[in-house]
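This part of the workshop introduces the protein records we will be handling. Backbone structure tokens are a discrete shorthand for how the chain folds in space. Once this layout is familiar, the rest of the handout is easier to follow. The record below serves as our worked example for the rest of this section.
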Amino acid sequence: MGSGCCFRSTRGSKMVSSPVMTRMQTFLQKEMVREFLAELLSTYVMMIFGLGSVAHMVLGDQFGSFLGVNLGFGFGVTMGVHVGGNISGAHMNAALTFTNCALGRMSWKKFPVYVLGQFLGSFLAAATIYCLFYTAIIDYSGGYLTVTGPTATASIFATYLPDHMTLWRGFLDEGNNPALQGTQAVVIGILVVIIGVSLGMNTGYAINPSRDLPPRFFSFLAGWGTQVFRARDWWWVPVVAPPLGAYLGGIIYLVFIGSTAPREPQMLENSPVYEDRRIPVLPKTTSYPPMTSSLTPISVSPNSRPSVRPVPPLRDSIHLEQF
């Protein structure tokens, strides 16, 4: 009895779990779901490397540097593109997603999907870095989580305006975004490093709402308080300026470069290849001999078996070698 009961329960669990797994697999195979997860994971990877390098610079005098932060974010972007580039393009940046939608290169219905994935990945990365460096943060700050001052640690998670910068100068600095990022991971990573080492001193070069706002919100929840939003009223600039700068850069690129770029001749995307050459489209005027039936009508009686003459081979056949 006992073994039979166990057998029935196991069989029942398989019957219950199988439809659940099927529905889950069907759900995960949807295009927008895959793009959401790709943006989440790629942004998480980028932010883990980036925020971790910032934590080293803030908390450890012998372990981190500003150059290390630039390299951390640069290689983080590169790794993020490798994670989700083939699925969503690995934007990892709400400004880039906004620009693609505004310029008609992506549907607006995907905008909230991409941005939500980016924000959630960035928030989870901030939580991970907080857990990994918690003891170092408490030791460095003496247990007081502050935004400004000699032992401030909020800058691990978000950017803050330095004393020598004004709000609107910082706005212009954050709006200095690259025009339209390509899809080559190494090139994008190098670009991020170059922006950091050349323009990063003024504002910390957030250049990405998805990089700045979710970790800032996490630091608010984790104990740094409302000061993370009140400090010099800076919090909204990394959210607003990068999309505007990216959009302006995209327009400049399309007007002065994109419209004059030579286009390759169009080829059949799905045509087979023979000796490294694509088969050309046959002209519409080409005609071939009409195919006539080789079956001769015969009368069939109920007691006789019908006979059919064999079909001769076609006179004209097309071979790949003729092209």
